[in-house]
Structure formats: structure tokens, C-alpha cells
Design a protein that fits this description.
The chain has a single domain, classed as Maf protein (Alpha-Beta Complex). It has 5 helices and 6 strands. About 30% of the residues lie in helices and about 25% in strands. It binds inosine 5'-triphosphate.
Length: about 200
């Protein structure tokens, strides 16, 4: 069985990535269990930050690493919060504060104009100096709801209504989310190019 570090400290991402990778003969190790601390996300793109996180976890553990950098782009806010989604309301603000700030900034904007998308870039490195990392991305279009609804998922899920539906992600189950989400799309695309051996 091949060991792989999930280079994220986000419990919601860990859960979704583990479900998407189930049954593929991989032993998934969480970076937190291996004592890997979070690296400073100094990049200005999802790709740069995902690479930083993957290389950092691979360097700390000596194992192949998979990282996800993702975020929400809202058109009426010029693409914010984007790569700053996790720290929109401040460095240590949590999901509830980030979501509340988002709704506050969108006050007065009608539903039709609240177009948005989740983006995700997933990176796999075989080792910290991997010169040819595997990189894949996914994008999930939708609208920002007028008010939060549902209690599933994490992050901005209670206020994101995927295109073509009427429910927020938090009102869907995790299987349905993984089938359609930015993260699910990115990982499926990466899995199509998954190397035969990780070492
Ligand atoms: P790691 O860096 O440790 O992976 P993080 O939460 O800091 O954890 P990011 O820097 O990639 O990760 O920030 C992503 C943020 O975007 C995340 O905290 C959520 O606020 C939001 N986000 C990303 N994917 C999401 C999803 O599927 N549902 C809801 N919010 C999501």
C-alpha cells in the first residue's frame, strides 16, 4: 500500500479528500497526525499555495504529499475573497465570521447578481523537490444565498447555491457534494493522471 500525506489542516477538506480517495490502495496520513505544522501561504494564486503546502508536507515527512488550495470568487466583489477565503475576516477568523462578512458585503445585491464560483487546485508531489508535480483544477459555479441554510459541510457551504439547484451545499449530502464540487472535479482530473508508483 502506498502512503500519502494529506497536506491540509482543514478537517472538512480532509474528510472530503479521504472519501474521494477511498478504495484506491492508498494509506492516507494526515499531516496533523505526523506533527506537520501549517506553512505560511505567501502565494497569490491557488496553484502557488497548493505547491507550497505539498512541498512543505513532503519535506517534513519524506513522503509523497497531496495538497489542496481552494477558495470562493464572488463577481460582485471583484473576485474576493479568492485566495484569501480562509482569512477573509482576519487571520484567525473562523468559517462563521468569514461567512457573516461575505453576506454583509453583499447586502443590497439581488440574488441574480450574486454569481460566484469555488475554485480548487490540487497538487501531488512525489517528494519535496519533485520537478514535475501533478497539478489539477476544478471550478463549481453558483450563487451566494441571501441567508445561510443547512448545517453540512464547512467554510462557505451554508451560503453557496450550486448552479441549477435551489439548495445550499450545506443542505446536500457529502456524496452529492463530492460528485459535483470543485474539489471532486480537481481530484478526478488528477486521478486520471495518477502515477503507477509514488516513490
Ligand atoms: P489548508 O491550507 O490547511 O488546506 P485552509 O482552510 O487554510 O486549510 P485554504 O487556504 O485553501 O485552506 O482556504 C480555503 C478556504 O476556502 C476554506 O477555509 C473555506 O473558507 C473556503 N473553501 C474551500 N473549499 C470549500 C468548500 O468545499 N466549501 C466551503 N468553503 C470552501
Amino acid at each position: 500500500m502506498q502512503s500519502l500525506v494529506l497536506a491540509t489542516g482543514n478537517a472538512g477538506k480532509q474528510r472530503e479528500l479521504a472519501a474521494l480517495l477511498q478504495g484506491r490502495g492508498l494509506q492516507l496520513l494526515r499531516q496533523t497526525e505526523l506533527g506537520v505544522t501549517s506553512v505560511e501561504e505567501t502565494g497569490t494564486t491557488f496553484e502557488a499555495n497548493a505547491l507550497l503546502k505539498a512541498r512543505h508536507a513532503a519535506a517534513a515527512t519524506g513522503l509523497p504529499a497531496l495538497a489542496d488550495d481552494s477558495g470562493l470568487e464572488v463577481d460582485a466583489l471583484g473576485g474576493a475573497p479568492g485566495v484569501y477565503s480562509a482569512r477573509y475576516a482576519g487571520e484567525h477568523a473562523g468559517d462563521a465570521a468569514n461567512t457573516a462578512l461575505l453576506l454583509q458585503r453583499l447586502q443590497g445585491v439581488e440574488f441574480a447578481a450574486r454569481t460566484a464560483r469555488f475554485r480548487c487546485v490540487i497538487v501531488l508531489v512525489r517528494d519535496a523537490n519533485d520537478a514535475a508535480p501533478l497539478i489539477a483544477s476544478g471550478c463549481w459555479e453558483g450563487h451566494i444565498a441571501l441567508a445561510p441554510a443547512g448545517d453540512g459541510g464547512f467554510g462557505y457551504d451554508p451560503v453557496f447555491v450550486p448552479q441549477g439547484g435551489a439548495l445550499t451545499i450545506s443542505q446536500l449530502d457529502e456524496v452529492a457534494k463530492n460528485q459535483a464540487s470543485h474539489r471532486g472535479q480537481a481530484l478526478q482530473s488528477l486521478l486520471a493522471r495518477w502515477p503507477g508508483s509514488l516513490r
